[in-house]
């Protein structure tokens, strides 16, 4: 248990520090917004770029890896949307937000630090390969569901291509052939920016949780949290273990990725459309708080620590 806590507590401890610092007024809301923007637009793209440039990418695409994860996404998205409509009267954008909050994981602020802490460099390649596909798929699906026939393919593509994480993925993939010719001082700058991603992301996540709170109550957010933290990783574990053969590290990364709490992109998506904001913020807050306990369970199931 102490080994598991050594993986989890640094991650959630920094989130707690950010929360308490904002709760006590020691730091302002502007600090959290600035840290979040720095991580999202600069530091994390540098971390992804550096990893993809230097990583050994498999020659054959791991289709079983993708299928195992995204079958889980589809299942919990469908369940959350159906439950929200049937039992909570959700319609239109709020119903999409319920599904999006359940299927989209908080990879930036929780997933990257936790998985790298658990698996180290060995887990970096499957982690960032999944990030490369995860965001475009979930964001595109949510936009199509929200706008229906009005959804513009060109608008969706433009938003994806200008997304900082996607830019980091594309730049890292393009620059792999010339990585050996990059001067050492340039790599040092890149390393410094990349090393700031994890602590700054976690502190900003704690500040954000203080801002969001449980605005919608706990009933539907509890359902979303259960689907996100328990059902999604369980589906991925079963598929990655018994259906699609893959290295244990890849299977473990997929399970931990699925076990991450609801992603902040669900809140940003709801804000863009002006509907479902309270639902998204409540789901993010509750699932992140509960993830401390559920992460310990999944680490034990995977035999880590």
TrEMBL record:
One of its GO terms (biological process) is transmembrane transport. InterPro entries: Mem_transp_PIN-like, Na+/solute_symporter_sf. The chain crosses the membrane at residues 6-22, 34-53, 65-83, 95-116, 128-148, 160-179, 185-208, 220-243, 249-270, 277-299. It is found in: Cell membrane. Its main location: membrane. GO terms for cellular component: plasma membrane. It is a multi-pass membrane protein. The keyword GTP-binding does not apply. It holds the Pfam family Mem_trans. Keywords: Cell membrane, Membrane, Transmembrane, Transmembrane helix, Transport. Belongs to the auxin efflux carrier (TC 2.A.69) family. PANTHER family: AUXIN EFFLUX CARRIER FAMILY PROTEIN (PTHR36838), TRANSPORTER AUXIN EFFLUX CARRIER EC FAMILY (PTHR36838:SF3). This is Transporter. It comes from Microvirga ossetica.
């Amino acid at each position: 248990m102490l080994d598991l806590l050594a993986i989890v507590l640094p991650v959630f401890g920094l989130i707690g520090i950010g929360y308490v610092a904002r709760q006590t007024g020691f730091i302002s809301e502007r600090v959290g917004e600035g840290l979040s923007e720095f991580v999202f637009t600069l530091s994390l793209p540098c971390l992804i770029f550096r990893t993809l440039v230097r990583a050994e990418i498999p020659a054959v695409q791991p289709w079983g890896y993708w299928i195992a994860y995204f079958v889980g996404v589809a299942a919990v998205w469908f369940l959350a949307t159906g439950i929200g409509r049937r039992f909570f009267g959700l319609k239109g954008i709020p119903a999409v937000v319920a599904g999006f909050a359940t299927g989209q994981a908080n990879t930036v602020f929780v997933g990257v630090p936790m998985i790298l802490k658990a698996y180290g460099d060995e887990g970096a390649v499957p982690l960032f390969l999944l990030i490369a596909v995860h965001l475009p798929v979930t964001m595109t699906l949510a936009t199509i569901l929200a706008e229906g026939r009005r959804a513009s393919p060109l608008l969706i593509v433009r938003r994806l291509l200008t997304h900082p994480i996607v830019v980091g993925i594309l730049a890292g993939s393009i620059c792999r052939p010339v990585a050996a010719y990059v001067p050492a001082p340039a790599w040092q700058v890149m390393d410094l920016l990349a090393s700031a991603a994890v602590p700054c992301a976690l502190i900003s996540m704690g500040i954000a949780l203080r801002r969001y709170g449980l605005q919608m109550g706990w009933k539907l957010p509890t359902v979303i949290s259960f689907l996100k933290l328990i059902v999604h990783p369980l589906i991925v574990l079963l598929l990655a273990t018994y259906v699609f053969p893959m290295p244990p590290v890849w299977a473990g990364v997929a399970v931990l990725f699925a076990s991450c709490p609801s992603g902040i992109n669900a809140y940003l998506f709801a804000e863009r459309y002006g509907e479902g904001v309270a639902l998204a913020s409540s789901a993010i807050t509750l699932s992140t708080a509960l993830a401390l306990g559920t992460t310990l369970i999944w680490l034990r199931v995977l035999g880590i620590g």
